[in-house]
């Protein structure tokens, strides 16, 4: 896999992420349709959503073009050692772990701060709602998953290969 191929895959993954984000914003955009008169906000939201979908399509259909524009020109000769599938899987799992950690860490800091501040309240104890407890547990699960993906990618790789091929690949 060349470096352009790796960046092209990342560009396509970003296109999928962007499309999911756009789809998640459709319900709030639909709430604007219920307005009596046409407001400029409806036109602006429609324009932004359409531009986002167009950007997703561009990123999906032209990932190598984007990759070539993003990567700097190499002055030294290209390395002939390409990344094999096993190494690419390990790197991908580690990068997924970093991605999950980047979402879980701010949530963990939020919940830890809220727990510490609630212990300092003099008026008595704080009753946690079910949603708050579930969110705390989900954040702890995300942190555990992120650490497992980052530091245990070789074990995960063996599990994936075992399910895919019926045997574990013992190469490092």
TrEMBL record:
Keywords: Membrane, Transmembrane, Transmembrane helix. The chain crosses the membrane at residues 41-66, 87-113, 133-152. This is DUF4149 domain-containing protein. It comes from Lysobacter brunescens. The lineage of its organism: Bacteria, Pseudomonadati, Pseudomonadota, Gammaproteobacteria, Lysobacterales.
């Amino acid at each position: 896999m060349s470096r352009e191929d790796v960046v092209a895959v990342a560009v396509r993954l970003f296109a999928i992420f962007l499309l999911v984000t756009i789809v998640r914003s459709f319900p709030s955009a639909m709430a604007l349709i219920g307005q009596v008169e046409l407001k400029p906000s409806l036109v602006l939201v429609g324009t932004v959503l359409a531009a986002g979908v167009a950007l997703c399509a561009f990123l999906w259909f032209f990932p190598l073009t984007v990759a070539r524009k993003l990567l700097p020109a190499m002055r030294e000769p290209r390395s002939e050692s390409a990344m094999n599938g096993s190494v690419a899987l390990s790197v991908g799992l580690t990068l997924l772990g970093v991605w999950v950690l980047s979402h879980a860490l701010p949530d963990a800091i939020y919940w830890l701060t809220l727990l510490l501040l609630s212990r300092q309240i003099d008026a008595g104890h704080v009753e946690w709602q079910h949603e708050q407890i579930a969110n705390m547990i989900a954040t702890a699960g995300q942190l555990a998953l992120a650490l497992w993906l980052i530091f245990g990618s070789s074990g995960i790789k063996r599990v994936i290969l075992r399910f895919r091929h019926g045997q574990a690949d013992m190469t490092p």
